[in-house]
Amino acid sequence: MKDEESGNRLGSYLRARRELVSPAQAGLPPGGNRRVPGLRREEVALLAGISPDYYLRLERGRDKNPSSQVLEALARVLQLDDTERTYLLGLATTRLRTPRRKRPEHVPPRVHELLAHLQIPAFVEGRAFDVLASNPMAVALSPRLRPGLNRLRSLLLDPEEQAFQQDWTRATADFIAALRTTIGDDTDNPRFVELVGELALSSQRFRTLWARHDVRSLDGGTTTVHHPVVGELRLHRDKLPIDDVILVVYYPDKDSDSDEKLRLLAALSQTESTGTAQDRPAGDPRPKTP
């Protein structure tokens, strides 16, 4: 992460991505005695139609003004998809942007009302995957969806969340790539700095994936989880931007096995919360759960 800390984010990204492209993928003979994974610098330069010296200057941060044509050529050689290509182009233009004013993430009152009315797991997350608000069904689905917790931190460090995910390996890769995409040029955001620093110290999985510089969009999709009470659930996920935050909802196919299990989970959750309220001693100041 030295290049990132010194401000050479473009060079760091180029180096990470060329190490992931094999000579065979680039149409080159594998050759012998390769000392680096992936492509050599001179091979990238040759395939992109630029001089090896110029590419070296780009990777080492000595030239920070590459043309869009050069970046497009590098994106082709490095076999970047649309999200990765957009990210690469953005790395060369962020220095021209004025710093954004940092505003605290705020859940609008109407969203709290919406959460209370939804009968499916729903919660609000911030840009760093902090859970800002959630409804009872979300917490019944996973206690790690309580406000104040961080989804990525739970995914990497909480054994119960790891067991909850059917495909933990893919989930971690998706989340970490999405975090890098979200951070973009906002590298001095205190919350991002804090989270990346904590996870870099506490998780080898995070360090490995962060070094790859993957970028990805984590929007809609379908996931399978293992609930400790009702068993396997196959749920669709949608993310809906509302002001500066994201509303996330999980829902099953109608009349599916997962739909029945989610209804059972809702009934069990309601019974448990009602029983907890009724069991409180007289004079308990806490409000009863409706």
Radius of gyration: 23 Å
Structural class: alpha+beta
The ordered H/E elements are: HHHHHHHEEHHHHHHEEEH
Poorly predicted residue ranges: 277-290
- Overall pLDDT metric: 87
- What does the main sheet amount to? 5 strands, antiparallel
Separation of the first and last Cα atoms: 50 Å
Tally of contiguous helical segments: 14
Which strands sit side by side, in order, in the main sheet? 2-1-5-4-3
Task: Indicate the percent of residues in helices.
Answer: 40-55%
Note the beta-strand portion.
5-15%
Q: Write down the overall geometry.
A: elongated
Q: Please give the number of β-strands.
A: 5
Molecular structure report:
The protein has 290 residues and is an alpha+beta fold. It is 48% helix and 12% strand. It has 14 helices and five strands. The protein has a five-stranded antiparallel β-sheet. Helix 3 crosses helix 4 (52-59). The longest helix is centred in the last third of the chain and has 22 residues, at 257-278. The chain starts with a helix and ends in a 12-residue tail after the last helix. Residues 277-290 have low confidence and may be disordered.
